[in-house]
Specification:
This protein has 252 residues and is of the alpha+beta class. The protein is built from ten helices and four strands. It is globular.
Length: 252
């Protein structure tokens, strides 16, 4: 690539700007399609990656030792696939802007360099501008139809299996995020409403910790662009199980 990403980053360019410039260069004037596959990007750039059962690290970046050598990315085998995707994009950032340095990227690392790489990964995989929302003039109409769907779910609640009911709640939750009815607090409000519906069937509430929020947002983005809920189902069911385990420990 002709762009000097290291110089751009050192000049003060933000992580999201760097990610967007990289996508423009990488796509070579072709329309960028989502979801982004960071593993394929590494492969296409000639950067082999390996999965290893790290105990303390999300991933590692080993730069090329010299001419004729090549960089290597290591990704934590024990982490969920969505976290591995973020790690791949995270290490790609190190390759672009820190090409002469090696990095051992610890789980929950807080350094500014790691925060920059994490922000780069977030923008690369799920740019903010790509989230789907309805035209504000259509919000009342969309809320009317959403209300009908919620009432229908409540009427059918007792006749559905627990997994079917939870999946319907998740679909309604996603639809509420797309409607984006409020100026602020849409995420908190829609998750609170989802938890209220889950409690009707005595299901533990969902709560996404800071390190899980990017994975949750990526799942929303994929539902926006592909109409596939599988990753969003996975994030919700995992959160429900975690909440159940934590609440059980608390009450014992």
């Amino acid at each position: 690539m002709a762009v000097d990403f290291e110089a751009l980053a050192n000049s003060g360019m933000s992580a999201d700007q760097l990610a967007n410039i990289f996508l423009q260069e990488y796509s070579a004037d072709k329309e960028v399609s989502y979801p982004i596959n960071p593993f394929q990007i590494l492969t296409n750039l000639g950067i082999p990656f390996v999965l290893r059962p790290f105990k303390k690290y999300e991933g590692i970046y080993i730069p090329a030792a010299g001419e004729g050598d090549f960089p290597i990315v290591g990704i934590n085998l024990n982490r969920p696939i969505m976290r591995q995707r973020y790690t791949a994009a995270h290490e790609l950032c190190h390759h672009l802007k820190d090409v002469r340095s090696g990095f051992m990227c610890a789980i929950n690392a807080k350094s500014e360099i790691e925060k920059y790489a994490e922000a780069f990964a977030s923008e690369l995989l799920m740019p903010t501008a790509e989230f789907e929302t309805v035209d504000y003039q259509k919000i009342p109409e969309e809320m009317y139809f959403l209300d009908k769907d919620i009432k229908k779910l409540m009427d059918e609640c007792d006749g559905l299996s627990l997994s079917e009911y939870i999946e319907r709640v998740i679909q309604i939750h996603h639809r509420m995020t797309v409607i984006h009815a409020f100026r602020d607090g849409n995420g908190r409000t829609t998750r609170a409403f989802a938890n209220m519906m889950l409690l009707k069937r005595h299901v533990s509430p969902v709560f996404f910790k800071n390190q899980e929020k990017n994975e949750y947002k990526e799942a929303l983005k994929i539902a926006d662009t592909t109409d596939s809920y599988e990753l969003l189902y996975e994030r919700f069911f995992k959160s429900i199980l975690n909440s159940f385990a934590e609440l059980s420990d608390f009450t014992m």
